[in-house]
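Re: folding output
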Amino acid sequence: MSRFRIEATQRYLLGGVELLVTEVSDCGRIIFEAVETGHRHVLRREEAEKEILSGELILKPDSDGSPVVAKTPLDLLPPNQKAEVLRKERYLLELRDTDPQKSFRSKIVNVIEKVATDLGDENPPKPTTVYRWYKR
């Protein structure tokens, strides 16, 4: 089971060299390309995860501190994907703005109830799903 989400367009630092993930194959091969030189570096997923855990391979944050990932403008998404993104965002924003004194599990349950009612969401996510979204 994979511990990390490694995706094309993410940027990493390895020994001071900035690497761009250009391909993640179904067979577990990850192709990195050095941004400055174009030199390719191929690792198996297990090797990449080992280097991440050891601190050798570091996900490069962008200017606002969040990981660099592919960003598709919301307006270019198909309507069903756009609606799902906005739905998830609503749950996460509400969770962020809740009372920090409550236990995290009770916060999530309360947020789900409130947002589901506000949105008329007949199939609200489970607490573990919202927690997974939150951790990403």
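--- second protein (sequence, then structure) ---
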Amino acid sequence: MLGCILGLIVHNYGSEPYKSWKNLGAPPIAIKKLLVADKDTIYVQSTDDRIFSCYRATQYDQDCWSQVDSFSPVWEDDPSCLPLDDIPPEPEGIIDRLINRRCIDSPVLRANEISVYILLRDGTVMQWISDPGDPNEVDLF
């Protein structure tokens, strides 16, 4: 049981919620559209129809754009989860947006996670990730 609690603490430390939008930069080719995303990875389609992905699991990951042949299924947005009240103000010039809300309801954790990705006019992708669960939402027993 102690191992489970320590694992949850370590996971939540690495998943510390962002206080502001994080700049993921852009792939080497201009982006046509945001395709799909989950908490840690976004897939985009370039103007020459290639697919690029950016994996950023923690605030400390920096370089992330890689060309890929395809993408794995990701969890889909669940609008019944936590509302989007705590997102910091968005930057100007948004041309595309992906929002994923996920409800977590397991024997050791009840919480909500939200990840939002936006594409700006200048080709930059920004990421914001919520807290995986406030203390009153986490149910360890």
